[in-house]
Write a structure and sequence with these properties.
The protein contains 20 helices and 19 strands. It is an alpha/beta fold.
Length: 568
């Protein structure tokens, strides 16, 4: 059986009382559980955490209790509904929680329930309640046996609703999955005042594993650079230990010398800003290193980053390691000027010089570029976009984090190391033996989309196909649903390539919109109210992110006779 665990924060008490009275619960579109549940499964609510903010590590969480739990049997599957159900929906006149289900046979306990497993709330359920509190969403767990008495079952307890104290030894929660580790990273960030959507962090992690070059796009001030820094710090990589490096890109960069270095007139090699993390990553293969190229499109990326873009395509698996063509030659290592190098970097250089061979890109070095799109920045070519996963920050919830019950504690970082990020494969050949069905499903999806992309010459090739398949495998492991994976692939690998002023681009976008939305829901190109209908679709909270993006691109095309993923 499955149980849906929901932690109810202080700001949701009114909705909680309404839900218990009417036997209904609901989720926002971006907060739906990734695991399906349905009739006959259970829902377990918990609220009123007694330890202050619920954003605690598991070791601290179990020392406290909650002031109330309630549980019931789920009587319908999760479905989209349009009516105004909840008190805050009726006040605003908008549907906020469209994905709903019903439940019955409610039981409710209002007293302290320990989270250590010494009451009937098992350690597994207590841990799931913590994860629900962190993500502000439901969390689904599989159970062999429901630990609470059902209303149909006879019981000798004086009060059937009271959980029986357990005298069994307390068992620790099961080993953390990739998805749970990412929730811990989300908790680390939120405790420092930055709340990022769970699906964004999962997509970011999967993108890093699929290929160690990711582009974060979005409006200024949406937290792109902060996400990279906090994600690295949550993993144990900081500026202080040399595992995180922030490199601000300058508009006057027109070659790779600022990043990789150059030979001066005296024959000495002057290392660029990328060299220190490169040397340290080679010297410490068990650790992960992150480089953030901040505002990377202030200069033409193809001009200063071309060496990296070419060499990253040479990634291949040799034994259990991943290697590339050289990016630093022996002569550059041997004649490198050491003035200004830190002691750890100098130590790494001496060691690597002693090995007497050139250096490629280490598998434990991850490069993330942040970009804005305005009049001060440069556009991207297909060469860049084909070699990166692009994640756009387009869902901004300004109310996020305002319902925190208390000041979040300083959640400690994790010590993840390279084992958490190491790719399992670099080519489709490596992947097929264990993920053939997933590969076929993604390839078919992209093949179908290519029929529309071909209308304007934007078909994708084998590189995009293979990287999309790799991303899908890692994203599923991270906890994204199949629907979220397919949506991410279109938004990260396909739509960013589409731009132009040709009427064929508009035809392409309309064709994609019909494929994804359905013929009956998409107006005709000759409809006099097409722009108004597209504008309504652009802000439709029930539409998928892909549909909203395409609608925005079509509006831009109709207004400016030009469109681009980056400007819509």
């Amino acid at each position: 059986m499955k149980v849906l665990i929901v932690y109810v924060g202080q700001g949701s008490i009114e909705n909680y009382e309404h839900g218990l009275q009417n036997g209904v619960w609901g989720f926002k579109p971006n907060k739906r559980p990734n695991v399906e549940f349905g009739e006959g499964d259970y829902i377990l609510f918990g609220r009123d955490f007694r330890g202050g903010s619920p954003r605690l590590p598991a070791s601290e969480w179990i020392k406290h209790s909650v002031g109330e739990i309630a549980w019931a049997t789920i009587t319908s599957k999760l479905e989209r509904q349009n009516g105004l159900e909840w008190p805050d929906e009726k006040r605003s006149g908008q549907v906020i929680y469209p994905f709903r289900f019903t439940f019955g046979e409610l039981q409710r306990i209002k007293r302290d329930i320990r989270l250590s497993g010494k009451d009937q709330l098992t350690p597994e359920l207590a841990e799931a309640l913590r994860l629900s509190a962190i993500t502000n969403s439901g969390y689904v767990r599989e159970l062999v046996k429901w630990p609470f008495n059902s209303p149909q079952s006879p019981t000798t307890s004086p009060n059937p609703a009271e959980p029986k104290p357990s005298h069994e030894p307390v068992q620790p929660p099961r080993q953390a999955t990739t998805g749970v580790v990412l929730i811990e990273i989300e908790n680390f960030m939120a405790a420092r005042g930055f709340a990022f959507c769970t699906h964004v962090l999962r997509a970011f992690y999967a993108s890093l594993r699929a290929k160690p070059f990711v582009i974060l796009a979005g409006n200024s001030g949406t937290g792109k650079s902060r996400l990279v820094r906090l994600f690295a710090e949550a993993s144990g990589a900081t500026v202080e230990n040399g595992q995180f490096t922030m490199i601000p890109v300058r508009p006057d960069w027109n070659d790779g010398s600022e990043l990789l270095g150059f030979f001066d007139l005296n024959g000495e090699f002057i290392p660029g800003q990328f060299i220190a993390p490169l040397l340290l990553a080679h010297y410490n293969p068990a650790k992960s290193f992150f480089v953030c190229l901040d505002e990377m499109n202030l200069a033409r990326v193809e001009h200063y980053f071309s060496d990296f873009l070419s060499i990253i395509e040479s990634r291949r698996k040799v034994g259990s390691s991943i290697t590339t063509d050289p990016i630093l030659k022996e002569s550059q290592l041997q004649k490198m000027k050491t003035t200004g190098l830190s002691e750890p970097v100098l130590e790494a250089l001496i060691y690597l010089n002693g090995r007497l061979h050139p250096l490629g890109l280490p598998e434990n070095l991850y490069v993330v570029g942040t970009v804005n799109m305005d009049e001060t920045t440069q556009p991207f070519s297909r060469k860049v976009l084909d070699r990166a996963n692009t994640i756009e920050f387009n869902d901004i919830d300004l109310l996020q984090g305002l319902d925190e019950e208390a000041v979040a504690p300083l959640v400690p970082p994790l010590d993840l190391g390279q084992s958490f990020f190491r790719p399992e494969f670099t080519t489709l050949h490596d992947l097929l033996p264990t993920h053939r069905d997933k590969a076929k499903q993604i390839a078919q999806t992209i093949s179908d989309l290519n029929q529309d992309l071909g209308l304007a010459g934007f078909e994708v090739g084998y590189r995009v196909r293979d990287e999309a398949i790799s991303f899908a495998v890692y994203a599923s492991d991270a906890g994204l649903s199949d629907e979220e994976v397919n949506e991410a692939i279109v938004l990260q690998k396909i739509l960013p390539r589409v731009h132009g002023s040709s009427p064929r681009v508009e035809k392409l976008l309309m064709s994609l919109l019909r494929r994804l939305r359905g013929e009956s829901d998409v107006p005709d190109e000759n409809d006099p109210e097409l722009t108004q209908k597209l504008a309504a679709l652009r802000v439709d909270s029930e539409a998928s992110a892909i549909v909203r993006k395409i609608a925005g691109m079509l509006i831009l095309f109709r207004e400016e006779n030009f469109t681009s993923f980056w400007l819509a």
